[in-house]
């Protein structure tokens, strides 16, 4: 089982909860949303990067080399799009080849 510090767990939980309460009728069209910047405070707290290959797999909570936003359970939008909406970062698009600490495998 991974060892996540209590504060980090609370941050990740808060971000996940925020992504879940977005009203479906209030979603913007994907083409209207800005790209998530790595320097964004929420992105930085989730260790988001546009390039998953720059993250050491051993440093991840669930070590795996093939973790990218495109194969995460939280990504939305059409498969194959380079930038897609994510439940963790409402109102912003993430790079399909990106990664963050909240990555979860698709069921």
Question: How would you describe this structure to a colleague?
Answer:
By secondary structure, this protein is mostly helical. The protein has a domain at 34-107: High-Potential Iron-Sulfur Protein, Chain A (Irregular). It has two helices and two strands; from the N terminus they run H-H-E-E. It has helices at residues 6-20, 41-45, and strands at 83-85, 93-95. The protein has a two-stranded antiparallel sheet. The longest helix has 15 residues, at 6-20. It is globular and about 35 Å long.
Task: Give a brief description.
The protein is mainly α and 107 residues long.
- Please tally the β strands and state the result: 2
N-to-C order of helices and strands = HHEE
Arithmetic mean of pLDDT: 82
Indicate the CATH topology of the domain at 34-107.
Answer: High-Potential Iron-Sulfur Protein, Chain A
Class by SSE composition: mainly alpha
What is the alpha-carbon Rg in Å? 13 Å
Top keywords for this entry?
107 residues; mainly alpha; High-Potential Iron-Sulfur Protein, Chain A; two-stranded antiparallel sheet; 2 helices; 19% helix; globular
Task: Tell me the layout of helices and strands.
Layout: H1 6-20, H2 41-45, E1 83-85, E2 93-95
Antiparallel strand pairs: 1-2
């Amino acid at each position: 089982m991974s060892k996540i510090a209590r504060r980090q767990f609370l941050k990740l939980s808060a971000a996940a909860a925020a992504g879940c309460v977005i009203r479906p009728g209030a979603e913007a069209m994907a083409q209207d949303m800005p790209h998530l910047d790595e320097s964004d405070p929420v992105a930085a707290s989730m260790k988001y990067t546009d390039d998953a290959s720059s993250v050491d797999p051993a440093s991840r909570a669930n070590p795996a080399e093939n973790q990218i936003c495109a194969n995460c359970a939280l990504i939305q939008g059409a498969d194959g799009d380079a930038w897609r909406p994510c439940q963790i970062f409402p109102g912003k698009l993430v790079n399909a080849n990106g990664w963050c600490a909240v990555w979860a495998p698709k069921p």
